[in-house]
């Protein structure tokens, strides 16, 4: 009997250790896959920031040529520094990919041509105090050709990274599926083992003891001996508790990993991984029930200046506070995404008309009413908002995001209002720049 019990306990012990080992192995594997997903997101983010920096540099050059005001050169110099930084980051992040490194070399060459053209026109305008010759040089479209080539190569670069991202997401989801399968197998195995243990103990221990007790009860002094007084139940209780604790931990870790892949680490908001799908669902709902949905593209103004003056920790505090305030000022059914360093998208769903949309937007704009205390300084929240309405403006998620971006930049250019609704004229204005 003792040998059988020791054998049974040995099986339980080995099963528990084996289960823990495989669980930790799968968790480590899942963390590795998640790290690659985040790595690719980082590459795409730097790529977007690189293009944004190039646009800033070109905007600064154009502003200086048109106005002659030296203050317009600040975006140029900032864009030059930022573009070099993001290009260096991309080289480091894709150092294991020769194909992408070759594209980055082409991008670097085009950037050199582009900045040579920019500084040539700036120096020309500075030297003779007349920007007309520099403007004529800009009009020959050489700089535009450089930017077009840069966009083309960056688009190819991003397409490769996007494919890698989807592959790595697939690998991560497969890892989660394996963990889920392990949970099911564990549950079936331990339940079966528990049932077997009950029958084993009933047959080999409880029944003989019951027979012994019933035979000796007649001569007892009236004191009934409880079966529990003779059994050691702590070991079984420990094993079952360990099993359910491991189950709970696996489910918790699975939910945690799933949350990480779909949410921004700093603010806890959703990231862009589920954004297109949610926008598409909102569009279909609006079309089906004849309602409206709105997309708000929010970009913080002077965010880089805050990072440079107070440090990235201060910038992170501001982002967290902005995310918290937006969350408090929208409905629970609406969705908020952080899609870039200082860029947010708010999806407002299922509204009756434009007036109701404006009411919700007014609540979002209220986040700037009070400053934020950072490092004992009052920091005013400044932002530009572009608004697009679906299905009025478009029923394509990518087009809606693009239009909202265009409206946001229009708001950034407008000194009187930091919120703009999209209209088709903005596209023509943007093409004239």
Describe the 3D structure.
The chain is of the alpha+beta class. The chain has helices spanning about 1-65, 75-95, 100-130, 130-140, 140-215, 235-260, 275-290, 305-310, 310-330, 355-365, 395-415, 425-430, and strands at about 290-300, 335-340, 345-350, 370-375, 375-380, 385-390, 420. The strands form 2 sheets. The protein has a 5-stranded mixed β-sheet, sandwiched between helices. Helix 11 links the parallel strand 6 (about 385-390) and strand 7 (about 420). Helix 1 packs antiparallel against helix 2 (about 75-95), helix 2 (about 75-95) packs antiparallel against helix 3 and helix 3 (about 100-130) crosses helix 5. The protein is elongated, with a radius of gyration of 32 Å.
Question: What would a concise description of this structure say?
Answer:
This protein has 433 residues and is α+β, with helices and mostly antiparallel strands. Helices cover 71% and strands 9% of the residues.
Give the beta-strand count: 7
Strand order of the largest sheet: 2-3-1-6-7
Largest sheet: 5 strands, mixed
Number of helices: 12
Query: What is the H-and-E element order?
Result: HHHHHHHEHHEEHEEEHEH
**Low-pLDDT sequence parts:** 227-231
Radius of gyration: 32 Å
Kindly report how far apart the N and C termini lie: 90 Å
Structural class: alpha+beta
Shape: elongated
**Proportion of residues in helical segments:** over 70%
Q: Beta-strand percentage? A: 5-15%
Overall average pLDDT: 83
């Amino acid at each position: 009997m003792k040998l059988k019990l020791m054998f049974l306990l040995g099986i339980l012990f080995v099963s528990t250790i084996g289960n823990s080992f495989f669980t930790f192995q799968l968790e480590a594997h899942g963390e590795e896959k998640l790290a690659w997903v985040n790595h690719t997101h980082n590459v795409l983010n730097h790529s977007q920031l690189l293009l944004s920096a190039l646009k800033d540099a070109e905007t600064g050059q154009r502003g200086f040529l048109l106005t002659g005001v030296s203050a317009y050169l600040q975006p140029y110099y900032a864009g030059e520094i930022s573009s070099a930084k993001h290009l260096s980051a991309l080289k480091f992040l894709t150092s294991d990919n020769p194909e992408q490194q070759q594209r980055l070399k082409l991008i670097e060459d085009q950037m050199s041509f582009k900045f040579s053209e920019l500084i040539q026109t700036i120096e020309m305008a500075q030297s003779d105090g007349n920007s007309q010759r520099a403007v004529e040089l800009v009009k020959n479209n050489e700089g535009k050709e450089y930017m077009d080539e840069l966009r083309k190569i960056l688009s190819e670069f991003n397409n490769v990274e996007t494919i890698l991202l989807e592959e790595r997401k697939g690998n991560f989801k497969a890892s989660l599926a394996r963990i889920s399968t392990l949970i099911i197998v564990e549950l079936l195995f331990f339940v079966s083992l528990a049932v077997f243990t009950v029958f084993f103990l009933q047959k080999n221990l409880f029944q003989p003891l019951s027979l012994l007790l019933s035979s000796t009860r007649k001569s007892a002094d009236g004191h009934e001996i409880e079966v529990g007084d003779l059994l050691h139940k702590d070991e079984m209780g420990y094993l079952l508790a360990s099993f359910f604790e491991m189950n709970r931990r696996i489910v918790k870790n699975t939910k945690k990993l799933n949350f990480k892949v779909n949410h921004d680490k700093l603010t806890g908001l959703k990231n862009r991984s589920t954004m297109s799908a949610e926008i598409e669902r909102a569009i279909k709902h609006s079309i089906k029930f004849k309602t409206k949905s709105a997309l708000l593209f929010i970009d913080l103004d002077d965010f880089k200046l805050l990072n440079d003056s107070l440090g990235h920790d201060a910038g992170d505090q501001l982002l967290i506070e902005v995310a918290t305030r937006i969350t408090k000022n929208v409905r629970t059914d609406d969705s908020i995404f952080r899609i870039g360093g200082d860029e947010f998208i708010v999806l407002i769903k299922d509204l009756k008309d434009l007036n109701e949309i404006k009411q919700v937007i007014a609540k979002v704009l209220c986040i700037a009413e009070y400053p934020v205390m950072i490092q004992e300084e009052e920091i005013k929240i400044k932002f530009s908002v572009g608004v697009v309405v679906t299905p009025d403006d478009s029923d394509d998620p990518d087009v809606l995001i693009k239009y909202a971006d265009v409206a946001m930049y229009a708001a950034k250019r407008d000194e009187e209002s930091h919120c703009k609704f999209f209209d088709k004229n903005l596209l023509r204005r943007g093409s004239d720049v």
